[in-house]
Amino acid sequence: MHTFYLVLKTLLVYLYTITAALSPAVGGGDFEPSAPVEPGDPLKYIQVEAVDEGFDMCTPPAEGGGYRYGPSMILNTDGSLDVWCATDGPGDISDLVGYFRLYDGGKRKSFEKIALKPTGGGWDSLSTCDPGVIKFGGYYYIGYTTTLDKRGVDNDICVARSKNPDGPYEKWTGTGWGVEPVPLIEYTDNPDFWGAGEPSFVMMGDELYIYYSWNTAGATTHLAIADATDENWPATLEYKGEVIPDKIGGDSADVKYLDEYGRFIAVYTEKRFSPDSYVAVWESFDGVDFRRCGVIKNNTAARLHNCGISGRADGHIDAGDPVYLGYAYGDWGPIGWATRLHEIRLSLADGPKTDDTAEENIETPIGTRPVKAIPHVLTVKSEKQVYNISGPTKVWTMSFDDDRYCFPVLLGTRFYGYDESVIKIVGGIMYPVGEGSTWVRLEWNGIIDDFLVNVVSDG
Known about the structure:
Number of domains: 2
CATH architecture of the largest domain: 5 Propeller
Structural class: mainly beta
Radius of gyration: 24 Å
CATH topology of the largest domain: Tachylectin-2, Chain A
CATH superfamily of the largest domain: Glycosyl hydrolase domain, family 43
Strand content: 35-45%
Protein backbone atom coordinates (compact mmCIF):
# COMPACT_ATOMS: atom_id res chain seq x y z
CA MET A 1 0.00 0.00 0.00
CA HIS A 2 2.86 2.36 0.81
CA THR A 3 4.35 1.72 -2.63
CA PHE A 4 0.97 2.42 -4.25
CA TYR A 5 0.65 5.79 -2.56
CA LEU A 6 4.25 6.68 -3.35
CA VAL A 7 3.73 5.95 -7.04
CA LEU A 8 0.37 7.71 -7.04
CA LYS A 9 1.80 10.72 -5.27
CA THR A 10 4.64 10.99 -7.77
CA LEU A 11 2.13 10.85 -10.61
CA LEU A 12 -0.07 13.45 -8.97
CA VAL A 13 2.83 15.82 -8.45
CA TYR A 14 3.76 15.50 -12.11
CA LEU A 15 0.19 15.99 -13.32
CA TYR A 16 -0.44 18.87 -10.98
CA THR A 17 2.74 20.65 -12.07
CA ILE A 18 1.98 20.23 -15.76
CA THR A 19 -1.65 21.22 -15.33
CA ALA A 20 -0.87 24.28 -13.26
CA ALA A 21 1.64 25.44 -15.81
CA LEU A 22 -0.40 24.82 -18.95
CA SER A 23 -4.10 24.85 -18.06
CA PRO A 24 -6.31 27.87 -17.46
CA ALA A 25 -8.86 27.77 -14.68
CA VAL A 26 -11.67 25.26 -14.97
CA GLY A 27 -14.79 26.80 -16.41
CA GLY A 28 -16.24 28.42 -19.47
CA GLY A 29 -15.73 31.85 -20.89
CA ASP A 30 -16.33 33.76 -24.07
CA PHE A 31 -13.92 33.86 -26.98
CA GLU A 32 -13.39 37.26 -28.53
CA PRO A 33 -16.09 37.93 -31.16
CA SER A 34 -15.15 36.36 -34.46
CA ALA A 35 -13.69 38.82 -36.93
CA PRO A 36 -15.32 39.33 -40.34
CA VAL A 37 -13.77 37.12 -42.99
CA GLU A 38 -13.62 37.09 -46.76
CA PRO A 39 -15.94 34.70 -48.59
CA GLY A 40 -14.39 31.34 -49.34
CA ASP A 41 -13.35 29.90 -52.68
CA PRO A 42 -16.49 28.52 -54.39
CA LEU A 43 -14.37 26.11 -56.44
CA LYS A 44 -13.39 24.27 -53.25
CA TYR A 45 -15.67 22.01 -51.21
CA ILE A 46 -15.56 21.30 -47.47
CA GLN A 47 -14.75 17.72 -46.54
CA VAL A 48 -15.22 16.32 -43.05
CA GLU A 49 -13.94 13.05 -41.62
CA ALA A 50 -14.13 11.40 -38.22
CA VAL A 51 -10.58 11.05 -36.89
CA ASP A 52 -11.30 7.70 -35.18
CA GLU A 53 -14.16 5.56 -33.86
CA GLY A 54 -14.83 7.99 -31.02
CA PHE A 55 -16.33 7.07 -27.67
CA ASP A 56 -19.65 7.27 -25.86
CA MET A 57 -20.19 10.35 -23.74
CA CYS A 58 -23.57 8.97 -22.59
CA THR A 59 -24.85 5.41 -22.36
CA PRO A 60 -28.30 4.22 -21.25
CA PRO A 61 -28.67 2.44 -17.92
CA ALA A 62 -28.44 -1.34 -18.06
CA GLU A 63 -32.06 -1.56 -16.98
CA GLY A 64 -34.91 0.66 -18.05
CA GLY A 65 -33.27 2.21 -21.12
CA GLY A 66 -33.07 5.92 -21.70
CA TYR A 67 -31.35 8.31 -24.07
CA ARG A 68 -29.48 11.52 -24.78
CA TYR A 69 -29.71 12.90 -28.31
CA GLY A 70 -29.35 16.03 -30.43
CA PRO A 71 -26.23 17.39 -28.67
CA SER A 72 -25.59 21.14 -28.88
CA MET A 73 -21.95 21.84 -27.96
CA ILE A 74 -20.05 25.04 -27.12
CA LEU A 75 -16.24 25.04 -27.02
CA ASN A 76 -14.96 27.13 -24.10
CA THR A 77 -11.74 29.13 -23.94
CA ASP A 78 -10.17 26.52 -21.63
CA GLY A 79 -10.84 23.71 -24.12
CA SER A 80 -13.75 22.24 -22.18
CA LEU A 81 -17.01 21.50 -23.93
CA ASP A 82 -20.46 22.50 -22.68
CA VAL A 83 -23.02 19.93 -23.87
CA TRP A 84 -26.82 20.12 -23.87
CA CYS A 85 -28.85 17.05 -24.92
CA ALA A 86 -32.48 16.04 -25.03
CA THR A 87 -33.14 13.44 -22.35
CA ASP A 88 -36.19 11.34 -21.51
CA GLY A 89 -38.76 12.94 -19.26
CA PRO A 90 -41.23 11.55 -16.69
CA GLY A 91 -44.86 10.63 -17.36
CA ASP A 92 -46.46 12.56 -20.24
CA ILE A 93 -43.39 14.78 -20.62
CA SER A 94 -41.49 13.40 -23.59
CA ASP A 95 -38.19 15.27 -23.19
CA LEU A 96 -36.14 17.51 -20.92
CA VAL A 97 -32.83 19.29 -21.62
CA GLY A 98 -29.83 17.94 -19.72
CA TYR A 99 -26.49 19.71 -19.37
CA PHE A 100 -22.95 18.55 -18.57
CA ARG A 101 -19.37 19.66 -19.26
CA LEU A 102 -16.57 17.59 -20.80
CA TYR A 103 -12.89 18.15 -20.04
CA ASP A 104 -9.70 16.88 -21.69
CA GLY A 105 -11.39 16.02 -24.98
CA GLY A 106 -14.10 14.07 -23.17
CA LYS A 107 -11.91 12.08 -20.78
CA ARG A 108 -13.57 13.72 -17.77
CA LYS A 109 -17.22 14.60 -17.38
CA SER A 110 -19.09 16.75 -14.89
CA PHE A 111 -22.31 15.68 -13.26
CA GLU A 112 -25.36 16.08 -15.46
CA LYS A 113 -28.13 18.49 -14.48
CA ILE A 114 -31.57 19.09 -15.89
CA ALA A 115 -31.11 22.60 -17.28
CA LEU A 116 -34.52 23.16 -18.87
CA LYS A 117 -37.91 21.60 -18.26
CA PRO A 118 -41.54 22.35 -19.23
CA THR A 119 -43.72 24.97 -17.63
CA GLY A 120 -46.80 23.27 -16.19
CA GLY A 121 -49.84 24.22 -18.23
CA GLY A 122 -47.67 26.26 -20.59
CA TRP A 123 -47.05 26.12 -24.31
CA ASP A 124 -44.14 23.73 -23.69
CA SER A 125 -45.87 21.61 -21.04
CA LEU A 126 -45.29 18.31 -22.88
CA SER A 127 -41.75 18.71 -24.19
CA THR A 128 -38.51 20.69 -24.09
CA CYS A 129 -36.25 18.88 -26.54
CA ASP A 130 -33.80 19.30 -29.45
CA PRO A 131 -31.74 22.07 -27.81
CA GLY A 132 -29.76 24.54 -29.88
CA VAL A 133 -27.56 26.86 -27.80
CA ILE A 134 -25.67 30.10 -28.40
CA LYS A 135 -24.20 32.67 -26.03
CA PHE A 136 -24.10 36.44 -26.51
CA GLY A 137 -24.76 39.54 -24.44
CA GLY A 138 -23.98 37.64 -21.25
CA TYR A 139 -26.75 35.06 -21.78
CA TYR A 140 -26.95 31.47 -22.90
CA TYR A 141 -29.96 31.06 -25.19
CA ILE A 142 -31.55 27.63 -25.68
CA GLY A 143 -33.91 27.22 -28.60
CA TYR A 144 -35.98 24.05 -28.26
CA THR A 145 -38.79 22.00 -29.80
CA THR A 146 -42.13 21.75 -28.06
CA THR A 147 -45.67 20.55 -28.72
CA LEU A 148 -49.10 20.42 -27.14
CA ASP A 149 -50.03 17.29 -29.11
CA LYS A 150 -49.36 13.97 -27.36
CA ARG A 151 -48.74 12.37 -30.75
CA GLY A 152 -45.53 14.38 -31.01
CA VAL A 153 -46.72 16.33 -34.07
CA ASP A 154 -47.60 20.00 -34.70
CA ASN A 155 -44.36 21.15 -33.04
CA ASP A 156 -43.27 24.75 -32.44
CA ILE A 157 -40.02 26.39 -31.32
CA CYS A 158 -39.57 28.22 -28.02
CA VAL A 159 -36.47 29.92 -26.57
CA ALA A 160 -35.14 30.52 -23.05
CA ARG A 161 -32.13 32.35 -21.60
CA SER A 162 -29.87 32.16 -18.54
CA LYS A 163 -26.64 33.67 -17.24
CA ASN A 164 -25.44 30.12 -16.48
CA PRO A 165 -25.23 27.13 -18.83
CA ASP A 166 -27.13 24.88 -16.39
CA GLY A 167 -29.83 27.46 -15.63
CA PRO A 168 -32.19 28.53 -14.24
CA TYR A 169 -33.68 29.68 -17.55
CA GLU A 170 -36.34 32.30 -18.19
CA LYS A 171 -38.50 31.88 -21.28
CA TRP A 172 -39.58 34.21 -24.06
CA THR A 173 -43.12 35.31 -23.24
CA GLY A 174 -43.90 37.29 -26.40
CA THR A 175 -43.02 40.65 -24.85
CA GLY A 176 -40.04 39.81 -22.63
CA TRP A 177 -38.49 37.05 -20.53
CA GLY A 178 -40.32 35.24 -17.75
CA VAL A 179 -42.16 32.03 -16.90
CA GLU A 180 -44.97 31.51 -19.42
CA PRO A 181 -43.49 30.66 -22.83
CA VAL A 182 -44.84 31.52 -26.26
CA PRO A 183 -43.29 30.26 -29.50
CA LEU A 184 -40.29 31.89 -31.09
CA ILE A 185 -41.40 30.20 -34.33
CA GLU A 186 -44.94 28.83 -34.65
CA TYR A 187 -45.77 26.03 -37.06
CA THR A 188 -48.66 27.06 -39.32
CA ASP A 189 -49.06 24.11 -41.70
CA ASN A 190 -50.94 20.79 -41.50
CA PRO A 191 -51.10 19.89 -37.75
CA ASP A 192 -50.86 16.18 -38.55
CA PHE A 193 -47.25 16.60 -39.69
CA TRP A 194 -44.21 16.92 -37.43
CA GLY A 195 -43.97 20.72 -37.71
CA ALA A 196 -41.17 23.13 -36.72
CA GLY A 197 -38.25 22.56 -34.34
CA GLU A 198 -34.60 21.58 -33.88
CA PRO A 199 -33.13 25.12 -33.94
CA SER A 200 -29.47 26.01 -34.49
CA PHE A 201 -27.94 29.49 -34.06
CA VAL A 202 -25.05 31.39 -35.66
CA MET A 203 -24.08 35.01 -34.93
CA MET A 204 -23.12 37.06 -37.98
CA GLY A 205 -22.16 40.58 -36.96
CA ASP A 206 -25.18 42.01 -35.18
CA GLU A 207 -27.56 39.49 -36.73
CA LEU A 208 -28.61 36.15 -35.30
CA TYR A 209 -29.15 33.44 -37.92
CA ILE A 210 -31.71 30.86 -36.76
CA TYR A 211 -31.84 27.58 -38.69
CA TYR A 212 -34.70 25.19 -37.95
CA SER A 213 -36.52 22.13 -39.29
CA TRP A 214 -39.82 22.59 -41.10
CA ASN A 215 -41.27 19.15 -41.73
CA THR A 216 -44.54 18.68 -43.59
CA ALA A 217 -44.54 16.11 -46.38
CA GLY A 218 -40.73 16.34 -46.41
CA ALA A 219 -37.90 17.29 -44.06
CA THR A 220 -36.45 20.72 -44.88
CA THR A 221 -34.41 23.40 -43.11
CA HIS A 222 -35.56 27.03 -42.95
CA LEU A 223 -33.86 30.27 -41.88
CA ALA A 224 -34.96 33.30 -39.87
CA ILE A 225 -32.76 36.29 -38.93
CA ALA A 226 -33.10 38.47 -35.82
CA ASP A 227 -31.52 41.70 -34.56
CA ALA A 228 -29.13 40.49 -31.84
CA THR A 229 -28.62 44.04 -30.51
CA ASP A 230 -32.21 44.06 -29.25
CA GLU A 231 -32.69 42.39 -25.85
CA ASN A 232 -36.08 41.24 -27.10
CA TRP A 233 -34.65 39.90 -30.37
CA PRO A 234 -37.32 37.18 -30.74
CA ALA A 235 -39.73 39.99 -31.67
CA THR A 236 -37.51 41.07 -34.60
CA LEU A 237 -37.53 37.87 -36.70
CA GLU A 238 -37.40 38.08 -40.49
CA TYR A 239 -38.25 34.81 -42.22
CA LYS A 240 -36.09 33.83 -45.19
CA GLY A 241 -37.76 30.53 -46.04
CA GLU A 242 -36.25 27.20 -47.09
CA VAL A 243 -32.44 26.94 -47.35
CA ILE A 244 -31.91 23.15 -47.41
CA PRO A 245 -34.45 21.08 -49.40
CA ASP A 246 -35.73 17.57 -48.72
CA LYS A 247 -33.13 15.76 -46.62
CA ILE A 248 -33.83 12.11 -47.61
CA GLY A 249 -35.33 11.16 -44.28
CA GLY A 250 -32.89 13.48 -42.54
CA ASP A 251 -33.34 15.22 -39.23
CA SER A 252 -32.02 18.35 -37.50
CA ALA A 253 -29.36 20.40 -39.30
CA ASP A 254 -26.75 21.87 -36.97
CA VAL A 255 -25.08 24.89 -38.56
CA LYS A 256 -21.78 26.64 -37.79
CA TYR A 257 -19.64 29.25 -39.58
CA LEU A 258 -16.08 28.31 -40.59
CA ASP A 259 -13.94 31.45 -40.29
CA GLU A 260 -10.90 29.82 -41.89
CA TYR A 261 -12.82 28.74 -44.99
CA GLY A 262 -15.30 31.62 -45.27
CA ARG A 263 -18.48 29.55 -45.34
CA PHE A 264 -21.29 28.00 -43.33
CA ILE A 265 -21.35 24.26 -42.69
CA ALA A 266 -24.49 22.25 -41.95
CA VAL A 267 -24.58 18.63 -40.78
CA TYR A 268 -27.52 16.28 -40.29
CA THR A 269 -28.13 12.53 -40.44
CA GLU A 270 -29.69 10.70 -43.37
CA LYS A 271 -31.09 7.16 -43.53
CA ARG A 272 -31.37 7.59 -39.78
CA PHE A 273 -31.80 4.49 -37.55
CA SER A 274 -30.77 2.29 -40.49
CA PRO A 275 -27.63 0.14 -40.93
CA ASP A 276 -26.61 2.54 -43.74
CA SER A 277 -27.02 5.79 -41.81
CA TYR A 278 -24.48 8.59 -42.21
CA VAL A 279 -23.94 12.30 -41.63
CA ALA A 280 -24.63 14.57 -44.61
CA VAL A 281 -22.58 17.77 -45.01
CA TRP A 282 -23.78 20.92 -46.78
CA GLU A 283 -22.13 24.33 -47.16
CA SER A 284 -23.08 27.91 -48.01
CA PHE A 285 -21.19 31.13 -48.61
CA ASP A 286 -24.06 33.44 -47.67
CA GLY A 287 -26.01 31.30 -45.20
CA VAL A 288 -28.98 31.09 -47.58
CA ASP A 289 -27.98 29.08 -50.64
CA PHE A 290 -26.63 25.69 -49.49
CA ARG A 291 -25.06 22.98 -51.63
CA ARG A 292 -24.37 19.36 -50.78
CA CYS A 293 -20.63 18.75 -50.38
CA GLY A 294 -19.83 15.64 -48.34
CA VAL A 295 -20.71 12.70 -46.13
CA ILE A 296 -19.26 11.38 -42.85
CA LYS A 297 -19.55 7.61 -42.69
CA ASN A 298 -16.18 5.96 -41.99
CA ASN A 299 -15.64 5.41 -38.25
CA THR A 300 -19.20 6.44 -37.30
CA ALA A 301 -21.76 4.10 -35.73
CA ALA A 302 -24.62 2.55 -37.66
CA ARG A 303 -28.20 3.59 -36.83
CA LEU A 304 -27.13 7.09 -35.92
CA HIS A 305 -29.45 10.10 -35.74
CA ASN A 306 -29.77 13.67 -34.41
CA CYS A 307 -26.22 14.97 -34.69
CA GLY A 308 -24.45 18.21 -33.80
CA ILE A 309 -21.00 19.78 -34.16
CA SER A 310 -19.15 21.96 -31.69
CA GLY A 311 -18.38 25.63 -32.15
CA ARG A 312 -17.50 28.68 -30.15
CA ALA A 313 -20.13 30.54 -28.14
CA ASP A 314 -21.14 32.58 -31.21
CA GLY A 315 -21.54 29.55 -33.47
CA HIS A 316 -18.21 30.03 -35.25
CA ILE A 317 -15.32 27.60 -35.75
CA ASP A 318 -11.92 29.28 -36.02
CA ALA A 319 -8.67 27.93 -37.44
CA GLY A 320 -7.01 25.64 -34.90
CA ASP A 321 -10.14 24.96 -32.86
CA PRO A 322 -10.72 21.30 -31.98
CA VAL A 323 -14.03 20.31 -33.58
CA TYR A 324 -16.30 17.53 -32.35
CA LEU A 325 -19.21 15.61 -33.87
CA GLY A 326 -21.81 14.11 -31.55
CA TYR A 327 -24.89 11.98 -32.27
CA ALA A 328 -27.18 9.37 -30.79
CA TYR A 329 -27.25 5.82 -32.13
CA GLY A 330 -29.24 2.62 -31.60
CA ASP A 331 -32.60 1.10 -32.44
CA TRP A 332 -35.99 2.21 -31.21
CA GLY A 333 -36.93 0.11 -28.21
CA PRO A 334 -36.43 -0.44 -24.49
CA ILE A 335 -32.61 -0.58 -24.59
CA GLY A 336 -32.26 3.11 -25.41
CA TRP A 337 -29.61 5.08 -27.28
CA ALA A 338 -25.99 5.87 -26.56
CA THR A 339 -24.47 9.22 -27.49
CA ARG A 340 -21.13 9.16 -29.29
CA LEU A 341 -18.48 11.86 -29.64
CA HIS A 342 -15.79 12.07 -32.34
CA GLU A 343 -13.10 14.59 -33.06
CA ILE A 344 -13.43 15.54 -36.72
CA ARG A 345 -11.02 16.89 -39.32
CA LEU A 346 -11.97 19.64 -41.81
CA SER A 347 -10.29 20.17 -45.18
CA LEU A 348 -10.96 21.48 -48.69
CA ALA A 349 -11.28 19.39 -51.86
CA ASP A 350 -11.65 20.12 -55.56
CA GLY A 351 -15.06 18.47 -55.69
CA PRO A 352 -17.91 17.24 -53.49
CA LYS A 353 -18.02 13.80 -51.88
CA THR A 354 -21.66 12.73 -51.85
CA ASP A 355 -21.61 8.97 -52.54
CA ASP A 356 -22.49 7.36 -49.20
CA THR A 357 -21.99 3.85 -50.63
CA ALA A 358 -18.22 4.36 -50.90
CA GLU A 359 -17.74 4.15 -47.13
CA GLU A 360 -18.95 1.94 -44.30
CA ASN A 361 -19.97 2.79 -40.77
CA ILE A 362 -19.56 0.56 -37.74
CA GLU A 363 -22.22 -1.84 -36.50
CA THR A 364 -22.18 -1.05 -32.79
CA PRO A 365 -24.84 -2.77 -30.65
CA ILE A 366 -25.49 -0.80 -27.49
CA GLY A 367 -23.29 -1.92 -24.62
CA THR A 368 -21.36 -4.63 -26.52
CA ARG A 369 -18.37 -2.69 -27.90
CA PRO A 370 -15.87 -1.29 -25.42
CA VAL A 371 -15.69 2.49 -25.51
CA LYS A 372 -13.39 4.98 -23.88
CA ALA A 373 -14.67 5.33 -20.34
CA ILE A 374 -15.93 8.64 -19.01
CA PRO A 375 -15.97 8.41 -15.22
CA HIS A 376 -19.30 8.68 -13.49
CA VAL A 377 -17.87 9.80 -10.19
CA LEU A 378 -19.15 8.03 -7.09
CA THR A 379 -16.96 9.62 -4.46
CA VAL A 380 -14.00 11.88 -3.82
CA LYS A 381 -11.36 11.24 -1.18
CA SER A 382 -8.24 12.85 0.20
CA GLU A 383 -5.11 10.70 -0.01
CA LYS A 384 -5.29 10.07 3.71
CA GLN A 385 -8.22 10.08 6.09
CA VAL A 386 -5.97 11.22 8.96
CA TYR A 387 -3.05 13.64 8.50
CA ASN A 388 -0.41 14.19 11.21
CA ILE A 389 1.46 17.33 10.13
CA SER A 390 4.16 19.55 11.53
CA GLY A 391 4.77 21.70 8.44
CA PRO A 392 3.16 22.71 5.14
CA THR A 393 1.49 19.63 3.63
CA LYS A 394 -0.26 19.22 0.28
CA VAL A 395 -3.71 17.60 0.32
CA TRP A 396 -3.79 15.16 -2.61
CA THR A 397 -7.30 14.26 -3.70
CA MET A 398 -8.68 11.54 -5.94
CA SER A 399 -12.04 10.27 -7.10
CA PHE A 400 -13.49 6.89 -7.97
CA ASP A 401 -15.89 5.98 -10.78
CA ASP A 402 -18.45 3.17 -11.19
CA ASP A 403 -15.72 0.58 -11.67
CA ARG A 404 -13.83 1.88 -8.63
CA TYR A 405 -11.15 3.23 -10.96
CA CYS A 406 -9.13 5.91 -9.20
CA PHE A 407 -8.06 9.12 -10.95
CA PRO A 408 -6.60 12.37 -9.60
CA VAL A 409 -8.61 15.52 -8.95
CA LEU A 410 -6.44 18.45 -9.96
CA LEU A 411 -8.75 21.43 -10.03
CA GLY A 412 -11.99 22.67 -8.52
CA THR A 413 -11.61 21.38 -4.95
CA ARG A 414 -12.83 23.38 -1.94
CA PHE A 415 -11.81 22.98 1.70
CA TYR A 416 -13.85 24.45 4.54
CA GLY A 417 -15.33 23.85 7.99
CA TYR A 418 -11.97 23.54 9.74
CA ASP A 419 -10.62 25.29 12.86
CA GLU A 420 -8.44 28.16 11.63
CA SER A 421 -6.66 28.29 14.98
CA VAL A 422 -5.22 24.87 14.08
CA ILE A 423 -4.58 25.09 10.30
CA LYS A 424 -5.13 27.24 7.26
CA ILE A 425 -5.51 25.82 3.75
CA VAL A 426 -4.37 27.86 0.78
CA GLY A 427 -4.14 26.44 -2.72
CA GLY A 428 -4.66 22.92 -1.42
CA ILE A 429 -1.73 23.19 1.02
CA MET A 430 -2.31 22.88 4.79
CA TYR A 431 -0.28 25.25 6.97
CA PRO A 432 -0.04 24.55 10.74
CA VAL A 433 -1.19 27.45 12.94
CA GLY A 434 -1.26 25.83 16.39
CA GLU A 435 -1.22 22.40 17.96
CA GLY A 436 -4.53 20.58 18.04
CA SER A 437 -6.94 18.62 15.85
CA THR A 438 -9.62 19.64 13.37
CA TRP A 439 -11.88 18.02 10.82
CA VAL A 440 -11.76 19.36 7.26
CA ARG A 441 -14.52 19.11 4.69
CA LEU A 442 -13.43 18.49 1.08
CA GLU A 443 -15.92 19.27 -1.71
CA TRP A 444 -15.61 18.67 -5.45
CA ASN A 445 -18.48 18.84 -7.97
CA GLY A 446 -20.98 18.58 -5.12
CA ILE A 447 -19.35 15.45 -3.60
CA ILE A 448 -18.19 15.76 0.01
CA ASP A 449 -15.56 13.96 2.08
CA ASP A 450 -14.26 14.65 5.60
CA PHE A 451 -10.77 14.00 6.92
CA LEU A 452 -8.94 14.66 10.19
CA VAL A 453 -5.81 16.78 10.64
CA ASN A 454 -3.60 16.61 13.75
CA VAL A 455 -0.96 19.30 14.11
CA VAL A 456 1.96 17.84 16.04
CA SER A 457 5.38 19.12 17.03
CA ASP A 458 8.44 18.10 15.01
CA GLY A 459 9.31 14.46 15.56
